[in-house]
Amino acid sequence: MIIQIHFIHTSFVFCGTLLDSHFHYGYYIYAATIISKFNQTFQDEYSTHIYTLIHDIANLSPVSLNLMSPSNHNDEPKKQLHELFPCARHKSWYDGHSWASGLFEQANGKSQESSSEAVNAYYAAFLWQRQHGNKKEMNFSRLLLATEIRSAKTYWHTGPANTLYPAVFADNYMVGNMGGLDATCTTWFGNKISYVHLINFMPLTDITNELFSEEFVTGEYQFLEPYISETEEAWQGYIAALNGIIDPGAAWEQAQKLESYKLDAGISKSQVLHWIATRPGLGKTWTVTKSTNESQVGSPHGTLCSSYAKCSTLGLIGECCPTSQGTYLGCCN
């Protein structure tokens, strides 16, 4: 199986300020969870690194309950991973959401722009911990995720149903940047209305279903619609996916016009089509059958990727022709 993973950001630490770490690491953790599910070699080699990223953004406790403080520092045992990081570094437990601005001063206090990327970070941590059977850490990630979703709907999703803001502000349906002392309908990278909405919609994953309700998107998309034509093509995949929540039929037609190479690096046409195809009410019937390449059945080369030059050149390992799921990859020819 070949899995294509997209990253929107490149992880970085800006002058030691831990800027946006949960946004960045969330993509890596999510991708690593998917790859590990199908590739044991990857999991064995990189799981320690992924656990390090998780502890940096979703650490349960920096305090060890199992180690006594030694009287002789020379005999001090090696610290466990969870002892090296603070508890839930970015989370504000009073507000319920995270702050992304890191360790530097801002006039409006701490701030966070992309509420959906924060949600994705804790969703990714939850998926990894669940996949690896870490029940306590999994439940803590669920807590981080649940509070982040609830606060995103409270502080970022506005509209007439949200009474937190004056009507002139609420009518925008989305906060762009939330600060400790203010809220703006702008972003760090531009003031277009579509930017404000879509930076708080990406990435597109299963947790998007929990973050965006049909009721909210009905009003939001109606507000956003006049701005769609002036929105760059890179963002059109997210617009079609958003529309898919309320009108999958129309969204399906939108998606036909997309070209993956013109879209934002965090999304593809196939991803948008899959999202829309799984929405209720599309009005299309899908028949999916398992197919095999008959010319490969009983091949004397066997099933291993290393037995096929093209697969080997791609660096694939394990079973390719077919995979353990019975699928023949293109490099088998």
Keywords for this entry:
three-stranded antiparallel beta sheet; 2 domains; single chain; mainly alpha; 12 helices; 333 residues
Structural class: mainly alpha
Measured between the Cα atoms of the first and last residue, the distance is 15 Å
Proportion of residues in helical segments? 25-40%
- Largest beta sheet, briefly? 3 strands, antiparallel
Q: Could you say which overall geometry the principal axes of the C-alpha atoms support?
A: globular
How many helices does DSSP assign? 12
For the secondary structure, the number of strands is: 3
| Domains (count) | 2
Radius of gyration, rounded?
23 Å
Arrangement of strands in the largest sheet? 1-2-3
Quaternary arrangement of the chains shown?
A: single chain
Residue stretches low in confidence (pLDDT < 50, at least 5 long) are: 1-15, 64-72, 291-298
Explain this structure.
By secondary structure, the protein is mainly alpha-helical. The chain folds into two domains: 21-231, no CATH class; 294-332, no CATH class. 40% of the residues lie in helices and 2% in strands. Strands 1-2-3 form a three-stranded antiparallel sheet, with no helix packed on it. The protein starts with 20 loop residues before the first helix and ends in a 20-residue tail after the last helix. Mean pLDDT is 85; it is low at 1-15, 64-72 and 291-298.
